[in-house]
Amino acid sequence: MRRESTGSVWGPWLLGWCGLLVLALANGTLRALVIQPRLGETVARALATVILLAALTALVWWLHRRRPIPTARQAWAIGAAWVAMTLAFEFGWGGLVAGLPWSTMLADYDLTAGRIWILVPIWTALAPALVRRAQHRAPATAP
């Protein structure tokens, strides 16, 4: 069985998660200060989720162009690591720093209340592998 070299790919991708964190914080600020006062909480949260999904896709696309993930297995592992780091940050910050109760933190994951935030961790897990596959299938140069 071939052993995969992970050292060269993990560093840039784990650092890339910090870019995701910056995007998420900027997105949340945009939602709270600009979108929510104009559109209301439910619509603003849904729109912010869609904006973050697009930003996450762009980040992964850009990062994969610069630091390609060599194998599908590594791409899935990076997605899993990003989700673990995202959820640890979200619930760690919310619970330990902001002092939010679990019910408040979990409210964004309640699809029955029109909250679609669950798409963010799902897409975070999938994006590295799907972008890797898409970029490997795309022609290297435009015609």
UniProtKB/TrEMBL annotation:
<feature type="transmembrane region" description="Helical">
    <location>
        <begin position="75"/>
        <end position="94"/>
    </location>
</feature>
<keyword id="KW-0472">Membrane</keyword>
<feature type="transmembrane region" description="Helical">
    <location>
        <begin position="114"/>
        <end position="131"/>
    </location>
</feature>
<keyword id="KW-1133">Transmembrane helix</keyword>
<keyword id="KW-0812">Transmembrane</keyword>
<feature type="transmembrane region" description="Helical">
    <location>
        <begin position="42"/>
        <end position="63"/>
    </location>
</feature>
<protein>
    <submittedName>
        <fullName>Uncharacterized protein</fullName>
    </submittedName>
</protein>
